[in-house]
Design brief:
Blueprint: H1 18-33, H2 40-49, E1 53-54, E2 59-60, E3 65-66, E4 72-74, E5 79-80, E6 85-87, E7 92-94, E8 99-100, E9 105-107, E10 109-111, E11 119-121, E12 124-126, E13 131-132, E14 137-139, E15 143-144, E16 149-150, E17 155-156, E18 164-166, E19 172-175
């Protein structure tokens, strides 16, 4: 058993002053997560103002959440679906022409379970042309290869090879030539 009162604090991944993190939380709620705010371009402008690197022709749908925009990079012409959650305590780098469908959760952080619950972070890379379909979970330390397809409801906890289709069992379903 771990005495959670002795666990490291939630601010372990904060690499900005607290006022910036709190200001981001307000702006995220008003302009990014807000389902009534329909403008993808406004969402993108606000994300860029807080340090996100977002290419041209990117679409960001409503209800998107981004923990730390300064740790997010999205390539040209990518589509981010409604309700996608970037819980990016470490970098998330998304290539060009990538689709991340609705309600997908990408998380770069976890905790050491056996020792002290300290935060452990690992980045996520999604290479150009990949499609992560709806309600997937992508864990830190993963690379999803070029033109790979991840089927709905799949949990990705290891690298996905380029030009492959992955299913809910976590196994390779199809390899393209």
């Amino acid at each position: 058993m771990i005495d959670l009162s002795q666990a490291p604090g939630e601010r372990a991944a904060w690499d900005r002053p607290s006022w910036v993190v709190y200001l981001w939380a307000i702006c995220e709620l008003l302009f990014v997560t807000n389902p009534w705010q329909i403008s993808s371009s406004l969402r993108i402008r606000v994300l860029r103002a807080f340090g996100a690197r977002i290419g041209v022709g990117v679409v960001f749908r409503p209800r998107t959440r981004v923990k730390f925009p300064w740790k997010l990079s999205v390539g040209d012409r990518s589509w981010i679906g409604e309700g996608v959650w970037f819980h990016n305590q470490e970098r998330i780098d998304i290539g060009h022409d990538v689709v991340i469908s609705q309600e997908t959760f990408l998380t770069t952080g976890s905790h050491r379970h056996r020792k002290d619950m300290a935060l452990v972070t690992r980045s996520i890379t999604i290479e150009p042309g990949a499609w992560v379909t709806s309600r997937c979970v992508v864990l830190g330390g993963v690379t999803i290869g070029r033109s790979a397809l991840v089927k709905p409801l799949t949990r990705i906890d290891r690298d996905v090879e380029p030009n492959t289709v992955w299913d809910q069992s976590g196994r390779l379903a199809v390899r393209f030539a």
